[in-house]
Structure formats: C-alpha cells, structure tokens
Write a structure and sequence with these properties.
Strand order of the largest sheet: 7-10-6-13-15-16-26
Radius of gyration: 26 Å
Distance between the termini: 15 Å
Number of strands: 37
Length: 775
Amino acid sequence: MAGKNPLQKCFLFIILSLNLMSLHAETGQKKTYVVHMDKSAMPSPYTNHLQWYSSKIDSVTDPKSHEEEGNRILYTYQTAFHGLAARLSKEEAARLEEEPGVVAVIPETRYELHTTRSPRFLGLERQESERVWAERVTDHDVVVGVLDTGIWPESESFNDTGMSPVPSTWRGVCETGRGFLKHNCNRKIVGARVFYRGYEAATGKIDQELEYRSPRDKDGHGTHTAATVAGSPVRGANLLGFAYGTARGMAPKARVAAYKVCWVGGCFSSDILSAVDQAVADGVHVLSISLGGGISTYSRDSLAIATFGAMEMGVFVSCSAGNGGPDPISLTNVSPWITTVGASTMDRDFPATVRLGTRRVFKGVSLYKGRTVLSRGKQYPLVYLGRNASSPDPTSFCLDGALDQHNVAGKIVICDRGVTPRVQKGQVVKRAGGVGMILTNTATNGEELVADCHLLPAVAVGEKEGKVIKEYAMTSRRATASLEILGTRVGVKPSPVVAAFSSRGPNFLSLEILKPDLLAPGVNILAAWSGDMAPSSLSSDKRRVKFNILSGTSMSCPHVSGVAALIRSRHPDWSPAAVKSALMTTAYVHDNMLEPLTDAAGAEPSSPYDHGAGHIDPLKAIDPGLVYDIGPQEYFDFLCTQELSPSQLKVFTKHSNRSCRHSLAGNNPGNLNYPAISALFPENTHVKAMTLRRTVTNVGPHVSSYKVSVSPFKGATVTVQPKTLNFTTKHQKLSYTVTFRTKLRMKRPEFGGLLWKSATHKVRSPVIITWLPPL
C-alpha cells in the first residue's frame, strides 16, 4: 500500500526536475542552501552548535572566499528543527551533504503571497464572539504568529484597549528599525520581527526608499491578514464607502506577533524557516502562513519539515492552498500536519452593470469610486481589440503599451482577464485615453467575479456575459455601452461558492490524505491596510485608505488561523490535530439555498478535491462532540509509509530521535487517524476489499451515544463496525473500522460522507474512494 502509483511517480519526477533546473542553472554561483543537521551528532570537542556548523562550512569551502565574502552562514535554526542557512556553490553543497551529521542540504525556495462581513457570515456576531471569548481570563493569552509582509501598527484594528497585560510566558520581542519603534507594539501587537538575510543574499540590499527594513508593512498584505486573524472591532470600516460596517478579526481578543518574511522581490525559504523557528521559540500558539512555493517531496520541503517541528511543540499551523485553481493538482502546503485552506465567496458582493446599446443589461462587480464618473444613461463607444470573442489573444489582455490611443480614446475598452494584474489593465486603458473598462473573465475563471478598486470606471463580468459583450463589440459598427456602479449588496445567493482561483486537489504526494482540508472566506474580504500603499497597489495610484478589500487564499487562511485561536482559547489542552479535526468535522457542504456547494469555475457541484471537508463553521467547531486526534509519532509513522529512506526520515527526527513504530495498520497511510477517509485501491485488480481504522475521542457530554450513517457509492459497498459508539466518560477513546468492497472499479474517484450523530452533535467525515488504473 505504501508504494507510489505511476502517475504519482511521473508527477513527482516532473516537480523535482523543474525544481532542480530552476535552482541549479548556474553551478559556480553562490546560492543559499538550508542545511538540516543531526543535533545529536555534534562531536564532544564543540561547546555549541554554531561552532560545529561553522566548522562544517569551513571544511567544504575555500578559506580565501571567507576573506572576500565574509561569513557564509545566514541563520541557525534550533527550536522547530536544527540546522543552518548558508551561501554555497553547487559543488560545496554537494560536498557538505556527504559530511557526517548533515541530514539534508536543500536549495533556497522562493515563495509567493497567495493574495468585515466574514465574522457575521460565519456566525460570529458581536454577542456570540464576545460570549466565546468571555469564558476565561486566559483567553487573552492566545498569540497568533503571522508570517507575511509586516504590520501597520497605527491601524485601529490593532487597538489594545481593554486587553490584559502581555503574559509573562511570552518570549517575543519588538525589533526596531526605520518607521518602527518599541512603542509601536502594545498589548495587541506583542511581537514584531524581520527576516531578510536570505532575501538580501539572493537579490541584494533592500532599497529603503522602496520598503521598510523593519516590521512596518508597506505592502499592506500582512496588515490585512493580521487584522483578519485577530483585529479589534472597528466601527464604520469601509473601502471608499463600500462594505461599510464593523470590521473585526475572527479572534478579536487574541494577540498578534508579526514576522516579516516577504519583500518586494518575494519571500525566501531561509527567512521563512528562521521565522517559524523563532515564532515557536517565542511561544506562539497558532501560525498563519499565507504563502506558497510549489510542491516538493516531504523530505525536500523545508516548510513541511519546520512545521512538523512546530506541530511537535503544540503549535497549530494554517497555510493557504494557493491560487492555482481551477486547475487540478494545483495545491501547495499539503503535509497532513498543516491545515490547508481553500477560498470561498461570502453572501456580500459589490454589484455593477453593463448596459449595451441594444439595451441589454449584464451584471458584474466593481469597487470603483473616483473623480471620473460616466454620465448615467449615456452610451459611450465600445471597443474590443481581440480577434476572437471566445479565445483571448495577446491584443485582448490590455498589456502595458499595447493600446493605441487612436483606437481607445473616449471609449469603453473590453479587456480579457489574465497575464497582468486586473487593476493594471485599467491603468493602461486610462493612460491611452479610455473612459472606462469592461474586464471579462476567460475560461480559466468562469463565472467567478472578483471586485477591484479600479482607477477608472470599470466592471468585471463572467465568461458567458463577456463572450456576448465581445461579440457585440466586434460585429456592431457603432457598438456602445454604459457602466453603473451600484454599491454594496448583502444576502447574495447562492453562497458560499468555491472560488475559481482556489487551488485544487487531489494531493498527489499522498492520495490517501485529502487536500485542501477546508474552505473559508477568501473573496472580497475587507480588513486593515497599510497607510503607505494605494488600494490598487499601483505606484501611480495616490489614494490612501485605512481598509482594503482583497481576494485570495491568502485571505481565507487567516480566517482559519483566527478560528483556531478561538478553539485554542476554549480548549488550551487540545493538540493541533484535535483543533483541525474540530474544524473539519463540523464544516458544512451546503450553501444558503440548502444545495450542495458549487464551483465558481463552472457552477457545477464542487467535490472534496475543491472544498475539502467543507466550509468552516466556527461556533460548531468550538464544540465538535468528537475529535480525531493525531500525535507526532503517528504523523511520523505516516511518513514511514511514504518511501523515504532512513536519512530522509532523519530530517523529521532531529528533535526527538523518533523511529518507525509502524502504528498504521498494514503500513497503509490511509490509516492515519485523519478526519477525512480516503480508500485508495491499488493497480492490482485482485484487491477487492480494504478496511481502514479510525479512533475518535469524546470531547462532548460525558455520556453520549453516536450512530453512524454513510452515503451510498456506485463502485463499492461501505460497512462501518460498530454502528454505534457509546461513551461513558469525557476524553474516552473508541475505535471503528470502515470496510470498502469493490462492486465496480470506477474510472473516476467517488465522493461521499460518513456521519456520526448523537442527540446533540453531528460529526462528519468526507469519504473518497479511488481505483488506480490497472497497469
């Protein structure tokens, strides 16, 4: 069962080949490598690990280079895992990997950011949220570490009024620098650090004219995610009048520690790993990481290794799934100890309309508010420069320098979505003399509408509407249109809907582990913003706002991080796996019309490969009834099923010298006690039956009885034993088995659910059955 199927092997070979090609294009050039060390292998003559690490680097490098280049070591890691980051040539890295005590040498990876109504939409009204947080005085002691672009401390979202003193157990600090002083931290922002050595080693010194070499956030992304996690309530929050109301984070009484790891040129793994290591040492309870850097095997994924160490220390880790949807197998951050979050819409949007000269009206969205206003009811000339209404081409994307003023001046220009940022297209149109823009989705985005703070009157429309509008512009000699921006609308149906951009499964590293884990709001999210950046993030945009509306799995990840902080405050003794289980088993899979969740990419029902266990339900997650718990040793035994060599496994054992105990029955990774159940039938058609085992822990009423039900499948019968679980004490553990018997090998995976129901609780697990194609 542990063997990889041919598709997986091919997929991993392509990934690794691409990684190696991109990171080793120039052999002689110095690059940053993350070096994982076996802490226990340090020889006795050395008094500390830095001394040992330095000798290792010296042993593989030319002494003359040290005089010319200075110290090669950028960071040492000692809490979540053990090792260092150092500048090495490819040849030096290869020699170092052969040294005793060196577990792995992994090239630097460049990561990208996965870029008010949500508390109400999630059921966290003011009364409910306050009630949840009023349970204990210790609630204020939950600290969420946010790895991002820093923080804008003056934002009202980080007001610490009414918060208790910072707990003495907190070990973090506030680092100072340009634009950031000690007093910028308070009882809400309890820590702020910067990590740039890896970034500067790869790109050169930070230009302090362009960004702050301090925790201060120029970009805005980090401020937005931190406020989504734990922002204090701010009345009257809005973006240029849109989304007016009270903005608050998921856990408004939690504290924030900002770890700035992202800069203008990206986020580098050596810096990210140093931040994870430091955050764990500082004492964070939750880590929120809205970043992604592709996918690698577990033993070559430094973030997976670092977060394994964080999990061992009891830290819950939430990561964004990525914005690679709707393409399948587009996920990042797929390790089972990470909670991987996809994005969904909410029941609020920002409607706008396009009215053609034919009087036909099309619905869209927009966040435009500016001095340029199109006359209401007036029709303006309409132009589309593409050659085909159905398939975009280079001329249709409104790229910089691509528009001729003679063709667009005084007109509304149709631009296809893609290639360049959406708002930048409007800037191009405006510079060429256009008076407005219609942004049309392509097949990639389908009918998903993302509102933007445009620089000129602009409306975004779906793919179907876009085709009709483009066809009209291309075939009518005097095509005209008018645009109208209608403000904010709530109560939108259906919602939630899976965002088309949200990255999709399956998880090809381990098909037995469902990813993403769940969905959270990630479309048109209002939260705090940097005072140094325009809402459009364009340098030519001189507008400044206190709040901004963004979309991306970067926005959904902090929702889950904040809810995890809520759960942690109520249940401080729960493991990270128990918190994840509570989130997954209480998630819902129907929208506000009581229909199955749909996919914005095509308006078809979504599957667990799109939405995971479903959409988060915070209030239910706080009281889930049962949890599927997993300890560090069980996660390690899962890794033992993944065809990793002893030396590869060692990168996960540095902290505790773990060994494979083979606790997963049949050495089957599907027997990891995960809240989702995935039966993977091998290529061998003689294997007709499979049994998976799960154990649940009672965290609800001491005495309770749960009965099971499971959805029907076309390709297999599913039997659960026992059919009833009778608990007599709290924290009691009971096990059950799920047996799958093939009736008909299906060409596609089948999806369903398994539900344990008591008088007070429902505990649901998604079920996936996959038959690998015969060899």
